[in-house]
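User: Need the bound-state model for FE2/S2 (inorganic) cluster:
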Amino acid sequence: GKRTATAHLILNLIVVGLYGINLGVRSSMLSDPRIRTGPFVLSLVGICLLCASGYLGGRLVYDDGIGVGRHKRHMPPPRDTIHLTAPIPGADSVFVPIMAAQQLRERETLRVEIGGQIMTIAKIENQLFAFQEFCTHRFGPLSEGKFEGFNVQCPWHNSCFDVRTGKVTNGPAKVDLKILKVEMREGKVGVPLPRQIKST
Ligand code: FES
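Assistant: Bound-state model below.
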């Protein structure tokens, strides 16, 4: 992600520089109707670099899900995804302890991945809630969302979901969120997951 974004930025800056030089060169020969090799080559190189940069920009948006945050959040978003292992077997599910959840502050979130399933853990009014990380509208990252009461607001297009039920409380999303129950077992906070979710 970061390397692609840096390459995208550098290419864009080079293209702006090239077009600036091109403009300077062309403005000095406005009265000459002939096509000059120098400015023509500069335009060609600029277009090629712009295509490469556009490709990288597309990868950032469509592969990495990077978008503009349209919200104001008071707590810092989680820096990393926590990858968990070591489930404690239960009757019909596996219980996965999430130790970091015990340290969460009010309205703070964690992004947790268990067996390929990515979820958000949030603390609201001293209770812990777990729900799917990606918004049902266009996959905005809900761990970076803003909280109003028990609603989480998606940072991308402001859809809201009730974290207790997963219900959409404000569009454009139309599909409810998948929620998970946060439980305390053997003194550990965690989530019970159906057995078909493979823990890594
Ligand atoms: S991605 Fe969440 S509202 Fe659009």
